[in-house]
Fold this protein.
Amino acid sequence: METEEAVSLSRVGKTFRDFWLRPTIKAVDGLDLSVARGEVFGLLGPNGSGKSTTIKMILGLIRPDSGAVRLFGQPPDSASARRRLGYLPELSYLHPFMTARETLRYYAGLCGLDGRTAKERIGELLEMTRLADAADRPVGGYSKGMARRVALASALIGRPELLILDEPTSGLDPVSTDEVKTLVRTLAKGGMTILMTSHLLADAEDVCARFMILNHGRAVASGKVAEMKGSLQQCFLAAVAERREFKVAPFLEAVSP
Amino acid sequence: MKAFLAVLLLELRRLSRSRAAWILAGACAAWTLAVPALATSDGTVEGARLLRIQLSLGGAFAICCIALAASGACSLSREREERRLALARVRPAARFSLAAGRVAALVAVGAAALAASCAILAAGVGVGRRCDHVLDPVMASPAAEAEKMYARYMALLPKLDEPDAPPELVDVLTAMTNAPKATVMRMFAQKAMDRYETVPTNSVASWRFELPPDAAGRPLAVRMRFASDFNLRDEVRGVFSIGCREGCVSNVTKSVVKVPLSSPREAADAETEATSLSFSNTGGGTLMLRPRKDVKLLVAADSFGANLVRAYLQMVAILAAICAFAVFLGACLGRTVAVFACFVMLFVGAVSSDVIVSYPDQLETDRIDRVSLAITRTVELAARPLSSLNPVSALASDECVEPAQTAFAVAVDGVAIPIVLSLLAAIAVSKVRCV
C-alpha cells in the first residue's frame, strides 16, 4: 500500500538482551516517527540515545520488539522496500581490494541492474562524486573523503527514493565535509527523501528541514529547523538536559606538587 | 542471477587479489610435481605409479579441501564482522545469492587448482592405460544374512534356562538380548561382510557375477586376496575360470593377485551367458577368503584419461559440498569458531569410516565408548555423500570411476547439497545479527 510517508515508525520499542535473554539495555522506547516524501530529516541525539538502533530497525537489520516500522507503507525487509532504499553507514566499509568502479558494479549487481544501465549509472555517479580519475584504483588507497564519496555513490547506485545517511560527515576534514553536504543538498533538491543522523549539529542545521532529538530511546524534541528559536545546538542542549559535574578537584589535589 | 554473478565476481576478486587463489594453485601444482621425488615406493613400476597417483592427486585434493574450507568459513563471517554484510543485506538481492555466489567462486578456484594438478599428473603417467569396471559377486546382502544369524541365535534362547548351557553361549545370548536389536544387526552385518570361505586343496569354489551386457569380447581378469588360517600372504596355486576363459595363478609374494582370463578366439562370443566364476585350488594348503571383500571380477572399461576426467568431476563436486558447508558455518558462526568447526567436521568425516571399521559395535564396550561410536557413526552417515565418493584410490588402482557414480556425485554433492546449504546460509544471514 502506497502512503505519503517514506518512513513511518509507530510506538517502536527495542530492548537488547544478553545470552540468557535478560534485558540489558532499552535502546528505543515507544518511538513515533514519520518522514514525508521529499523531506530531509535529521535524527539527532547524544551517544547511546538510540539513533543507530532506530536506523537499523528502519533498514530491517534488526527487528523491533514492539510497534511497527514501514517504508513506503511496506515492511522494511521486503524486496520492494529495499529497492527504494539507499544506505550510507557511519564508516564506509568498502572492500579495499576493489576499485571504485568495481565497487559500484558490485552494488549495481546486488540492485539487479543490467550491464548497460549499470555502466551508464556508474559513469554518472563517478562524475558526480568527482572520482572518475581515480575510479580504477583500489579503494584501499583512497583518502577518507574519497572513500566516503565512493560509499555515497554506492548508496545511490539503485536510484533510491529514500537515502539513509548515518553520520555522513563523521571523521571528515572541513573540505570533504562541505563536499558531502553539497552533495546531500543537491540530492534533496532533486526530490530525494533523506534521513540522516549526525553528531555535528551545525551540519544537520545546514542540511535538514526537520529534526528529532532522541535521548534514552525516546523523542525529547522535534520540529522544523526554520521555525526554531535559537540554534539547533541550544535546542539540543536544552532537550538533553543531563549534565554531569565532573568531580576533578580531588584528582587535581592529588596530582599537584 | 545478477546478484549471484556480482557476489561470484567479488569473491573471485578477493581470492585472486589476496593471492589465495594463486598460492592454492601453485601449492597443488608444486605438490603434484614434487611427489615422484619425495615418495618411496616398493621398487616396482606399478607401485610407483599407484603411489604417485594416490599421493599427488590425493594431496592436491586435500590441500584444496582444507584451504577452501577455511576460506569459505571466513567468507561470510568476515563480511559480517567487518560490517559489510549489512550493506549487502539492505539491497534487494536475494540472500541466497550472497551464499551461493561465494560457494561458486570457491569451487571455481578449487576446480582450477585441481585441473592444474590433473594436467601435470596426466603428463607424468600418461592417459592411455586401461581401467576396469570392478564387479562384486552376487550374494545375499549382509543385512539379509544378519537377519538369518539373528534368527539362529534367537532360536537358541530356550537353552539359557538349561543348566548345562555353555557359558560362552549364555554370555553371547545375554549380551544380545540386553543390547538394542539395531546394534546386534549391525554387528552381524559386519560379520557377514567379513565371513571367510575356505577352499580346501583340490576343491572348487564358485561365485556368481552379473556381467554388463557389453562385456562380450572385452578382456576379463580376476582380483583376489587370499589368506590361510595363520598367514595373510600364503602360497596360492589354482585356476580361475568363467565360461571358456581361464587364468592360472601361482603366487607366493603378494597378498592381492590380479589374474587375466583368456579364451580361445573361436569361443570369444560364447561367454556372455557364463556368469559363474570358479576357482580350483591346486595348491598344497587350504585357502581362506572373504567373498564379499576379496573376490572381484574386472571387466575392461575405458582409458585412464577418461577415468581421470570423471574423477576430476567427482572431486570438484565433493569440493562444492565442502565449500557450501564451510560457507554455511560462516553464515551461522563467528570466523574462528566457523573455521575450527569446519576443520573438526572435515577431520571426523575423513576418519569416521576407518574408526567404525576398526571399532565395530562391541556389546561389552562401556557406555562412553558406545556414545562415542554413536557420534562417530552419525558423523560418518552425514559425511558419507562426500567420503564414499572420493575417487582417488579407485583412480590409482585403475578401477573405473563409474559414470553413474560421477553423475550422482555431480547431482548430489555438486548441485543439491550446495543449493540446500546455501538456502540454509541465506536463512542464517537473515537471522544472525550482522550489525
